[in-house]
Design a protein that fits this description.
Shape of chain B: globular
Mean pLDDT of chain B: 91
Structural class of chain B: alpha/beta
Number of helices of chain A: 3
Strand content of chain A: 25-35%
Order of helices and strands of chain A: HEHEEHEEEEEE
Helix content of chain A: 10-25%
Mean pLDDT of chain A: 86
Strand order of the largest sheet of chain A: 2-3-1-4-5
Largest sheet of chain A: 5 strands, antiparallel
Largest interface: A-B, 19 and 19 residues
Number of helices of chain B: 10
Strand content of chain B: 5-15%
Low-confidence stretches of chain B: none
Oligomer: heterodimer
Order of helices and strands of chain B: HEHEHEHEHEHEHEEHEHH
Number of strands of chain A: 9
Shape of chain A: globular
Distance between the termini of chain A: 35 Å
Largest sheet of chain B: 5 strands, parallel
Bound molecules: zinc ion
Low-confidence stretches of chain A: none
Number of strands of chain B: 9
Distance between the termini of chain B: 18 Å
Chain lengths: 153, 304
């Protein structure tokens, strides 16, 4: 572990999400619906020097293990991230990131005329394409600005 | 057909299209044979934005089959105005009818409605999304006039917002059509339609003017360029003029060119085209009734 990473405190039980593209840590928290109100202990390193990515972000969440669903969605904005499950200070499991076929209820459609942005009892639903996502309702394709669609509410 | 709902033209296979068009041709040939075939059937009309022609053609279709309509009426006078969700509205109204027709200003409205109702649902236009029954009557008209195989078609006008264009372009990927798209740069096909056409392996060419491709075309499908799409009135006039067709323009076309338009038109096609053999848009509009009769007949199923 490098000197820089030590600045982010070690956790006892929980999840370390490493190798997040620089600047995306807050979007990662949005995907996990972590805003601090749930009392989780969260440490964030942003723009930490990295051999692989130049600059990377790192998120450590105490007392919480990610579900495969959450991990799948993370792959949309952090395809190279590594997910380490920590128990009693030891990494006991590493999740592989796999792009899901579809993400539900996580992104908001940028098309303001899309029915999914109305006050209807449906979740947003996006198909995951090789190079972007596509709204299952209005079919709008988004390639570059997926983090802007994350429903941080 | 395998589907209970007709939401997009994308769900139609070549066999589906042929089934509907063949049935429409049977109806055209002998309308009397289909009279009262669906006596007592009720079609629910849910028009959340006005469309007199589409609505009337569905009414005519179900009535010619012996059925009738229940009509939500205008949105202004209904409970929808008071903030009821579309999902709630359609779940109530599905109990009143054997099939539903939905026209809605929001893209994806028909897709969502299809998730809530069990009776067959026909999408009669959802925002800039889809208009599959228009596509079927377009295909019927093309088949009657030019044939659907080895077809060279020019689709011109507002390709960005024109839902009839999106549906038609996709449906044509079932046939070996050469599609030429002619529009100002600001109104070219949206990314999602390009994606679908690419996925379907369609032959697609894009142009900014008609001249070069006109002599090759079997069909020229013209759509309206709407003033509202342009922030500046002058820009609209400069562009719209270049995408108007008149009898002079068509002098360079083949004699058997079929000119189509999903009416209403404003001035995209000059009145002097009406008297030429090219003009097929009124016939196209009339085809709405037999094609919608065919669809309803297939969706409502055998009453025996
Ligand atoms: Zn959408």
């Amino acid at each position: 572990m490098s000197e820089h990473e030590l600045r982010v405190s070690k956790i006892r039980d929980g999840t370390v999400i490493d190798h997040i593209p620089g600047g995306q840590a807050l979007n990662v928290l949005a995907i996990l619906a972590i805003d601090g109100s749930g009392g989780e202990e969260v440490s964030i390193g942003m723009n930490v020097p990295s051999d692989r990515l130049g600059r990377k972000d790192i998120v450590k969440v105490e007392g919480r293990e990610l579900s495969q669903d959450e991990v799948d969605v993370l792959s949309l904005i952090a395809p190279d991230a590594t997910i380490n499950i920590v128990r009693d200070y030891d990494v006991v499991d590493k999740h592989r990131l796999e792009r899901p076929e579809e993400v539900t209820g996580v992104l908001t459609c940028p098309n303001r005329n899309c029915i999914s942005t109305d006050d209807e009892p449906i979740d947003s639903r996006f198909a995951v394409l090789p190079d972007g996502v596509r709204c299952e309702y209005c079919e709008t394709i988004v390639r570059d600005s997926i983090p802007d669609l994350i429903d941080a509410a | 057909m395998r589907h209970d709902h007709l939401v997009t033209a994308k769900q139609l296979t070549r066999a589906d299209v042929e089934t509907v068009l063949d049935r429409a041709a049977e109806i055209d040939a002998d309308p009397g044979a289909f009279r009262d075939r669906h006596a007592g059937a009720l079609l629910g009309l849910l028009f959340f934005e006005p469309s007199t022609r589409t609505k009337m053609s569905f009414e005519a279709a179900i009535k010619r089959l012996g059925g009738d309509v229940v009509d939500m009426g205008s949105v202004e006078s209904s409970s929808v105005k008071k903030g009821e969700s579309l999902a709630d509205t359609v779940r109530v109204i599905e109990g009143y009818a054997d099939a539903l027709v939905l026209r809605h200003p929001r893209q994806g409205a028909a897709k969502m409605t299809g998730e809530y109702v069990d009776v067959p649902l026909l999408n009669a236009g959802d925002g800039a999304g889809h208009h599959p029954t228009q596509t079927l009557l377009d295909l019927y008209t093309i088949r009657e006039n030019a044939g659907l195989d080895d077809l060279t078609i020019g689709i011109m006008g507002d390709l960005k917002y024109g839902r009839t264009v999106h549906s038609l372009a996709h449906a044509l990927t079932n046939f070996d059509a050469h599609q030429h798209f002619i529009s100002p740069e600001s109104l070219q096909l949206p990314r999602s339609v390009r994606y679908d056409l690419h996925e379907a392996g369609a032959t697609v060419r894009e142009h900014t003017d008609l001249e070069a491709v006109l002599p090759d075309l079997d069909v020229l499908y013209v759509t309206r360029i709407q003033r509202e799409r342009f922030p500046d009135e002058n820009e609209y006039h400069a562009i719209a003029g270049e995408y108007q067709v008149d009898a002079d323009t068509l002098a360079a076309a083949r004699d058997d060119l079929t000119v189509m338009h999903p009416l209403p038109r404003v001035d995209e096609i000059a009145a002097d085209v009406d008297d030429t053999d090219h003009a097929t848009y009124f016939e196209q509009a009339h085809n709405g009734v037999p094609v919608r009769m065919a669809l309803l007949d297939l969706l409502l199923g055998d009453s025996e």
